[in-house]
Design goal:
It contains 4 helices and 8 strands. By secondary structure, the protein is of the alpha+beta class. It has one domain: Ubiquitin-like (UB roll), CATH 3.10.20. The protein has a 4-stranded mixed β-sheet with strand order 2-1-6-5, with helices on one face. Strands 3-4 form a two-stranded antiparallel sheet. A hairpin with a 5-residue loop joins strand 1 and strand 2. The chain is globular. Its cofactor is Zn(2+); Mg(2+). One of its GO terms (molecular function) is phosphoribosyl-ATP diphosphatase activity.
């Protein structure tokens, strides 16, 4: 854990630090990425998990429109650029170790490339896996063809 995040363990309520100092201490993995969990800001529903590099994180914080790093495409991926199902940032938080992001978002339509509201629709129950939701929109309608990422 970085010294910055170790010191934050004892920080007082409402203490303020320069954003650049925190971003410099973020613990990106060996590929320069950090997991980002998107959660609907008003309901608490967990929508998806994707990856961000520093550029995607900085763009998201500056623009308010959520941007991820697409590992399959090898480039920045602005959520909804092909489907129209954008995410708008309401709040962003780092965990105590500085290695995971929680994004509070306003999700327009489905978050998942399957057309479902959430990517977390496969419930593991005992000896079975159960599908817990139906697509809101047919994925072919969203993308015109099958896709790997939403």
């Amino acid at each position: 854990m970085s010294d910055t995040f170790k010191r934050l363990e004892r920080a007082e309520l409402d203490a303020r630090l320069p954003l650049e100092r925190i971003l410099a201490a973020v613990r990106f993995n060996q590929d320069g990425l950090i997991p980002a969990i998107a959660q609907q800001h008003d309901s608490g529903e967990v929508l998806m998990m994707a990856w961000m590099n520093r550029e995607a994180l900085e763009e998201t914080l500056a623009s308010g429109r959520v941007c991820y790093w697409s590992r399959s495409r090898g480039k920045l991926w602005r959520k909804g650029e092909s489907s129209g199902q954008q995410q708008h940032l309401r709040a962003a938080s780092l965990d105590c170790d500085g290695d995971t992001l929680l994004l509070q978002v306003e999700q327009n339509g489905p978050a998942c490339h399957t057309g479902r509201r959430s990517c977390f629709y496969v419930a593991l129950e005992g000896e079975e896996a159960r599908i817990t939701s139906e697509p809101l929109i047919d994925p072919d309608t969203l993308y015109g063809k099958p896709s790997k990422e939403g």
